[in-house]
Input
Amino acid sequence: MARTLLTAAAIAASLLLPVAAQAQPADLVVTNAKIATLDAAGTMAQAIAVRDGRVVAVGSAAQMGAFTSPTTRTVDAGGRTVIPGLIDSHMHAVRAALSYSTEVNWIGAGTIAEAMARIRTAAANARPGGWLIVAGGWTEQQFAERRRPTMAELQEAAPNNPVYVQLFYEAVVMTPKALEALGVAPGTLPAGMKPTPDGAPGWMSGDIVGISALFDKLPKPTYDDNLAGTRAFFTELNRLGITGLVDPGGFSIAPSQYAALFELWREKALTLRVAYSVFAQKPGAELQEFRDLTQMLPMGFGDDMLKFNGLGERVTLAMYNNNFPDEAAKAKFYELIKWAAQRKLAVTIHWQENGSVDHLLGLYEKLNAEVPIKDLRWSIAHLDDASPQTLARMKALGIGWTMQDAMYFQGDRALAMRGEAARRMPPIGTALRSGVNVGAGTDAHRVASYNPFVALQWMLDGKTVSGKAMRGPDETPTREQALRLYTAGSAWFSFDEARRGTLEVGKLADFAVLDQDFFSVPLARIGKTTSLMTVVGGRVVYAAKPFGAASGPAP
Ligand SMILES: [Zn+2]
Output
C-alpha cells in the first residue's frame, strides 16, 4: 500500500514539477559539478537548480537550460564536488556560539607553541587585563609534545591577563592572576576542585559538575559578544559545510541565554538551521521546569531555520551520567518521560555506558507498552560501546543513536583501558546493520572539535588524534555511508529527513561546494576539507575564492 502511494506521488511530481518549473526560472543554478545527491540510488549529477529555497531540478547540464533565464545566477563549480549540507546531530553550538568571539580556541593546533601563539595573539587583542579562556575542544594528544601546557608557559604567553584553560570536564589550569581575580586565597583551590595526581603547578582536577560551577564564575561575554559570537561561529561552521544542527542544550547555558540565537532568527540572519531542546536545569524539579518551559512551546514549534525539538540531553539530574540510579530516581524519571510521551515531545538523553543502559531501556520499554514512543524520535547520545543487543532494543523502540567522534580525542585512553574491546567503539557498522537511525556529529566544543571533516575522516580511518589505529573494519562505514549519517541520518533527529539531507527535487537547497573531492581524496586528507561555497535554502551563506567577493550573495 505504502509503495502504491509513493509511486502515485512520484508520478504526480514528475508530471507537475517540470511544468511549474518552466513557468519560473531558477534563482541559482550550479553547473559543471560532481553532485552527490545521496538519493536512494546514490545518483551523481552534474548540475542543480534552486528556486525559492528549494531544489527544482538536479541532473545534467543540458537539463538546466529550461531553468535558466537572464535573472538566474549561474555558478560554474569547476568540476568540484557538491554534497548536501552537513548536519551535526549533537553539538552544543548555541552555547559555543555565545563565547566564540571572546574565547581562545585550540582546535587544530598541532604543537604547544602554536597553542601559546594563539594565547599571545588573544592577549594582544584583549582589553587590558581581560580574561583569556580556553573552554575545551583540545587534548594533549593533539600536540607533538603529547603533554598539557604548563602554567609557566601560559604565564609567559600572557603575563598580564588572567588565563583559564579547561581540559574536557576533567582538569583546569588557572594562572595566579586568574585565581586572584576569582578571589581564591593563595595556596587553596576553587570549591569543588582537587589537586591533580601529578601535582603539576596550577593544574587541578574536577568532574563535570565542579568544573561547570567553576566555569560559571568566570566573567560572562556581553549580549553584543553573544550576537557577534553566534554570527561568527555559525559562519565558521558554514566554512566547514555545515548547514544544520541538532543542539542538546548543556551546562552553563540558561534559557535566557538563547536570546542572541532568537534575535538572529527574528532578523533572518541565521546561516544554518537549528533544532534545539531544553536541558533540565533544576535538580529534583525537572518535570515542573519542563512543564513551565513548554506550556507555550509545542513540539516542533518554529520554522525551517529554528525549531523546538523537545527535551534533553539532561532529562533529570539523578539519571544524568549515573550508572547506578536508585529506584526513586527511576520512578521520578518514569513520571517525566510518561508526561513527555503524552505531550509527544522528543527526548534525547546523554548515556555513556552500555553496562548500565538497561536501567534506561527498561524504563523506555515499560513506557512504550503504556504510551507508545516509537514514532516520537527519541534518541540516545554517546553510548560508544553500545552492544548489538542494545542497538536492537533501541531499533525496536524507534530510538535513534547520535554518534560522535569522542574516540578521536579519547581513543588512546579507551584502548589502554579496554584493549581489543575498544576496536568496536563506536559500533558504526553494527548500528548500520541493525537498522537503527544513526546521526553523526561531534559533541563540540568543550569535549571535541566541531570540524565535521575531522569527524568524517575519523569515521573512515578509525584513528585517534595521536594517529593510533583503533576501530576495526567491521565497524567502519564507506565514504558514502559516512556522508549519509552526517546529512539525512542527522536530519532524522529533528523530523527533517524528508525535507533536507539529500539533494532531490522539492527538498530544501542546502549544499556545499567542496575544495577537494571527498570521494577520491586520500583518506588521511579528508580532515582538511573545507567548503568553498555553502548554500542554505538557496542563499549563499559562505563563499571563498573562486566563489567569493566576485560572486556576491544570491538574489
Ligand atoms: Zn552528552
Observations:
- The two ends are 42 Å apart (CA to CA).
- The longest helix spans residues 2-23.
- Residues 181 and 491 are 44 Å apart (CA to CA).
